[in-house]
Amino acid sequence: MRAIVQRVTKASVTVGEEQVGSIGRGLCVLLGISVEDTQKDADYIVRKILNLRLFEDENGRAWTKSVMDRDLEVLCVSQFTLQCILKGNKPDFHAAMPAELAQPFYNSILESMRSSYKPELIKDGKFGAYMQVHIQNDGPVTIELTSPAGPTDPKQLSKQEKQQQRKEKTRSKGPSESGRDKGALRSRQDHNASSGAEGDVSSEREP
Predict the structure, then answer these.
(1) CA 113 to CA 42: how far, in whole Å?
(2) What is the full DSSP assignment across 114-148?
(3) What is the mean pLDDT of the chain?
């Protein structure tokens, strides 16, 4: 999942002559859903959007407050073109989730954002419509978010699980015998080095 997050002084969406969503100061978010996205991706994006510290505090210190800290608005706009893959100069959108699946998924993201914040401060465009998006970027400040991609190949997942198990076994065993032997050897070497003849500069170590 990809999101373009812009700090704005105002933003609005119109469809034809009708204004379907508008905000004052806050965030305008363009959201692109891919065919591989899951609830985990949605949770990540929602959490990041609401907690990004893109605003100043009451003392004017920049990058200290989130949209939730400041009680500001968020305008979300579904934008499948964020999942574009170029084939030469021609955009290909096969990576985007089909509209019949993307619409309920997108609506669930909005509901998650509203339940995590104040529902009246989360605004929306019109899914699937030809929209005019008017953005007055503040700064300008633009942040690109991409949800972490986890392996979907069962073999890759199994490989990661085995690696994790090996790490856990290593931690539970503690230092190996060879590790203790090396430590003892270093200790003897240090002792020999520090017991050199008085006045031998080569035997002195930096403090």
Answers:
(1) 10
(2) HHHS-GGGEEE--TTS--EEEEEEEEEEEEEEEPP
(3) 83
The answer to whether residue 175 scores a pLDDT higher than 90 is no
Are 13 and 135 spatial neighbours (Cβ–Cβ below 8 Å)?
no
CB atoms within 10 A of CB 61: 10
Nearest Cα to 126, choosing from 106, 143, 108, 150?
106
**CA-to-CA distance for 118 and 62, rounded, in angstroms?**
24
- 134 within 8 A of 125, measured Cβ to Cβ: no
Contact 45, 32 (CB under 8 A): no
Q: Supply 111's token pair.
A: 């509901």
What's the pLDDT tens digit per position in 73-131? Answer: 999 999 999 999 999 999 999 999 999 999 999 999 999 999 999 999 999 999 999 99
Q: Which residues of 84-95 are buried (b: 16+ CB within 10 A; e: fewer)?
A: beeeeeeeeeee
* The residue count for the chain: 207
Question: Closest Cα to residue 75, out of 47, 49, 108?
Answer: 49
Question: Is the bond preceding 207 in cis, omega lying within 30 degrees of 0?
Answer: no
- The structure tokens 């190996």 sit at 176
Bridge-based pairing state of the strands 73-78 and 122-124: parallel
For residue 160, pLDDT over 50 is answered with yes
